[in-house]
Write a structure and sequence with these properties.
Number of strands: 3
Strand content: 15-25%
Mean pLDDT: 85
Shape: globular
Length: about 120
């Protein structure tokens, strides 16, 4: 008996399939230094910033607060928007943040909070 490997159709996806959405985001710190980036996994990337896992700028300036984000279905549109935002003046970036988040709250504040009844190892 011979075993045959079956090939997946291109649209079936794989364990390494592309994200459904892409995010352009602006992170900040208590001094309001700004970092603009693009990612396919916003929650993971914010966690990495908060833990200073990736990125010299974010680690050096303790960029740990999500101040702004936009969601896109197309990576090319997300990258174009990231470039557009990076080209804005600091004042215009701040105005963009205030338009969505006037109090400059950390939009990811509740994402990584352990529930009081959740075991510490979970």
């Amino acid at each position: 008996m011979r075993a045959f490997a079956t090939r997946r159709a291109a649209d079936e996806g794989s364990i390494h399939s592309a994200p459904s959405f892409y995010y352009v985001y602006i992170m900040t710190n208590r001094s309001k230094a700004l970092y603009t980036g693009v990612t396919g996994n916003l929650e993971q990337r914010v966690f990495e910033h908060k833990q200073c896992i990736k990125g010299e700028f974010a680690a050096r300036y303790k960029i740990d607060r999500l101040a702004y984000f936009e969601r896109f279905g197309d990576i090319h549109a997300a990258i174009a928007r990231e470039k557009q935002i990076k080209g804005l003046t600091r004042i215009k970036k701040m105005a963009l943040i205030v338009s969505m988040n006037p109090e400059w709250k950390d939009l990811s504040e509740a994402w990584f909070v352990r529930h009081q009844y959740q075991p510490e190892s979970a």
